[in-house]
Amino acid sequence: MRPKILAKDLSQTELLQSIKRKGIAEEPMGQKVEILLNLIEQLQSEVKELRAGNQGLRDENNRLKGEKGQPEIKAKNQKGFTSNHLSEKEPQTPKKDNKGSKKAGIKIDREEILEYPQELLPAEAQFKGYEEVIIQDIILATDNVLFRKEKYYSP
Fold first, then answer.
1. Residues of the chain under the 50 pLDDT cut
2. Where is the composition biased (Basic and acidic residues) (predicted)?
């Protein structure tokens, strides 16, 4: 005795494949069943395409209304199959580091010369020039002005 196949346990495609033409004794009836099965498969594929198109139109309609469409949820990987996402990506170009001097971009507001007291220097010390050091600071100052406008009155 064959086990009973329940429709809720199998998908539509599996159900169609479980029906065997050999089980039908009469030849003309078997051909008719085969034609019907082919028709059902065609209709199933057409319904699947129409549903996908309908969902695409719904997503576009929602997008035009300012909403989000239905998210695409990817199936989980099968056992033993792992995809290497790093190899699938295109190689990225390394970021350029700005390791050069940044002194050229700094606006100098004032220049001061710091003199070292001569009496603290050794007698044989020779002047060789200046070493430039830039110190950046922020000054927050108020600039309140009281204007005294002349006013006249003519009787």
1. 1
2. 50-75, 86-104
